[in-house]
Amino acid sequence: MTFHIITIFPESFESYTKSSIIGRAIKDKKVILKFYNPRDFTKDKHRRVDQKPYGGGPGMVLEAASVIKAVEKALSPSSVPLPLTLRGGPKKKLVVWLNPSGKQFDNKVAEKISKKYSDVVIICGRYEGIDARVKAIIKKWKEVKMEELSVGPYVVTGGELPAMVILDTVARRIPGVLGKIESVEENRISSSDVYTRPEVLTYKGKKYRVPKVLLSGHHQKIEEWKKGK
After folding, report:
1. How many Å separate Cα 60 from the centre of its chain?
2. pTM for this model (two decimals)
């Protein structure tokens, strides 16, 4: 799967995408990550992409033209490989418009994206937002699907953090990223509590023990404990 990130701060992804599971998935080419900075698509000699909002109000708004050009580049033949066959059918492209009032992003949405799409474009807003005409234009494109998604009932400074949440949640469902699909937590028959060695942990004079059932070797009882029975 290829993730195309539209952001004026691509450097904010650097440490996260070079470490741990996501970093390994990118290195192994299970996941491809590309960045498109609207500043590279503006005609302004100072590379400025924010303007004052019509109607007044505080803050600045990201202009439409440079963002649209960045999305067009992300979806161009040079950025999107030839059609592939994915789990669940032929390749499709998704544009994600991050919006606090959008559809709640959760595991079900992540699973759908991982199965249905091979290219995901995530548009990261900043300041007071992005000129709404960007959304109106993309919704008319027949070759892509657009969804407004929210990672939670709150507002953050920019779309980069929500984009990382979506990237992580979707990428870990791609076959081979976690090694085994059973490694996806919600696919396990498991208690939310887990334990490892030592069997007895002493902290400030008090002993904390691993539940006896996990030491019993009785597989049925262990599975029942994991299910919360």
Report:
1. 26
2. 0.84
